[in-house]
What does this fold into?
Amino acid sequence: MAASEATIEVRDLRKHFGPVAAVDGLSFTVVPGQVTGFVGPNGAGKSTTMRIVLGLDAPDAGSALIGGLPYGALRRPLQHVGAALDAAAVHPGRRGRDHLLWLAHSHGLPAGRVDELLEQVGLAGAGRRRAGGYSLGMRQRLGIAAALLGDPPVLLFDEPVNGLDPEGIRWIRGFLRRLAAQGRAVLVSSHLMSELEDTADHLVVIGRGRLVADTPVAALLAAASDSRVALQTGARERAMTVLSAAGATVAATGRESLTVAGLPAERVAELLGAEAVPFSGLAAHRASLEEAYMELTRGEAEFAAVPEGEGPR
Amino acid sequence: MTAAGSAGAGAGTGADAGAGGAGVAVRTEGGGVAPYRSQLPPARDGFLRLLHAEFTKLRSVGRWLLTLLAGAVVTVLVSLVSAGGSDAVTSGDGGGGGGSGAAAARVADSFRFVHRPLAGDGSITARVTDLTTGADTDAPWAKAGVIVKAGTEPGSPYVALMRTYEHGVRLQHGFEHDVAGGAVAGDAPVWLRLTREGDRLTGYVSVDEGTPANGGTPASEGVAGGGEGVAGGGGERWREVGSVSVAGLPETARAGLFVAAPETVRQERSFGSLDIGTGPSEATGVFDHVRLAGGSGNGGGDGGDAAWRDEAVGPASGPAAANGPAGGAERSGGTFTVTGSGDIGPLPPAADLTWMSLAGAQVGLIAFAALGVLFITAEYRRGMIRTTFTAAPRRGRVLVAKGAVLAAVAFAAGLAAAVVSFLVGQRALRSGGHRPPQFPEVSLTDGAVLRAVVGTGLLLALVALFALALGALLRHTAAAVTIVVVLFVLPLVLGGGLPLGAVEWLFRVTPVAGFGVQSTTPRYEQVETVCVPEDGCMPQGPWAGLGVLAVWAAVALALAVWRLRRRDA
It folds into this structure.
């Protein structure tokens, strides 16, 4: 299973643009059967990494292999890797179907395959229209169809949710999950962690070209949730004093609400009860992916110049 | 694992959309899923696939097809306009060619002829002691020499051996053929001899100074008997200039001395104005040691001096043409002084009608260039080049495939445009007064015309190819189109304003040289014509000119491939 051709292996990848290190010693592996979210703020090096994986940019050092081979060594690349990098990368004067058709012709694939994919991505009715008249969402779908043309085991999508309406977002999430479920390796980049909620199984988080985290989503959420307790109390000051004395980190999140980190929920209840501090609600905090992300990247100055809850005011 | 396999089997048959539910079910413990295996048959790769893909790209953008069509239509329209706007100046002095008969080809055959009959084999020998041209005339091709000609009828077959004013000794025949026989120093006398053996005539030259030593019979090429009454009469050492076989010489031909001086051609250009002048000219040759050996048509003996006849062949020309027959001949003792005008040689058409009817390509090429540039820059502009290079990571091959498809399509469109341009252009020219004999009929099936028309298609294909390469190098539409237009149109525009030498250089080395392939006027070294590149008189041969453009395109393409492979897409 490890030697599958449905993997992306990035090893010690480096790429500089002038003095700026776009990718700085990045290593991670994308395995088949799951959606791997590739997350980082704009400019973190996601697109550069994807371009290197696709053989479009040459790395300064390191390697990016698909099923053990560099992209340039793939004989029929569209049957190994499908990529949707930029939804705008379609000639506006060309019909959607013709855009897929030339790609198909480059691999000797039949025209029937093109119609099949237009059907799959919901563009069957629009295939004969010029791509210039497509909405951004339609172009995203066309890009996804292009990526799937060769029915490849490895898929890369750069910000595929951009420009999609809520229904489109729901559609693409389901679509990505189904592709992964078929045993494909699916790498999806996004600068918004929330977009990957309920989609990604695994996260590769990067910042300034370096790896920040490479973790299953479930583990990340568990870690983030474990340490926090949400507390509702009318006696905020007293609660803070009591809990701080017990070694917890307490942050005010509202006039009557606090977030307590460092103590499990039962211990918080116990302490507050012992000191007779009244409280109206106490819940182990279930972190959203976004919060887990913020937690994870707290140390990265680039992500949060002012750490949450500790601001100067 | 087997379940995952079956989910994979569903792919490619339109079942992806429905595979979602099952997809979750096949997830195994630990998140592991059997890697996906496509059920699509293996694709084919190779250069032919790339060609197919690039052709699909080209034909699927309507605007590009319109550009191509516009290029063809503009080519035809501009050709038509430029041909229709050109009125023929049919002047009377069309060169004095064979106005005398239907068979008369476009030749000049007008000269002063002092002759006697020559029956059967024999030879004519003479020493040219002096050749001078008229006072103000500069006639480098003024000529004096010996000639054997079928008769005095213009256009009749001949072989002539002569010394020229500036181009040394020449052996000419058939109006087109010219053999150089070496330079002649200054005013040194030159011995000339032309011998006839059947249809074969051989020219000899000798430049010995002083008195001939062996009584007029060259050691190696003796002509037996038949001595004239002229003292001396031969050089010491004869050198063969050439030997030609001429059909159509009758048993008894005319042999003798001739002098001719073609019209002078002067072209000067200073900024903005082209100054072309042609002027009549006249030359005088002095001969001595004239000897005709062989049959004289009256028993083979000495025909006597009275047998020499002096005649002006062809229509009158030269400075005195308006007043009467030009030139004349005087004889004093053994010395003949002959004065004549005119020329014996080909008479190129007054204008290159094929060139004129293909002129639209000079404007139409802009559309072809635009298409070539857009074919690649449109991909860069939208980022589609990345899709292209992910589908075909070998970038050099992609560009070559693009070039091949583009060139083929541009050639087809350019050829069609050239054929139509030629046909409508010829019609317009004919109705504008360009008629035979001054402007002979030309047909698509003529070798030179076919070359020009097919060459125009090739020219436009090369323009598109060159533009493609520039587009790939610069990745910028406007910049690339501008450069192509500057390289092609500027020399054409500047052509009217620069000194001739500079223009010729421009037309030799810039891509404009490619237009040489549209030229159909034959060039003869031995004839001076008005020659400016804008009118189709290119400094190089047709294929050489097109070759220059091809080199530009090839170098640009090679640079583009090199750059493409090194740079990030």
User: Anything to note?
Assistant: The two ends of chain A are 54 Å apart (CA to CA). Residues 251 and 309 of chain A are 6 Å apart (CA to CA). The longest helix of chain A spans residues 166-181. Chain A touches chain B through 68 residues (CB under 8 Å).
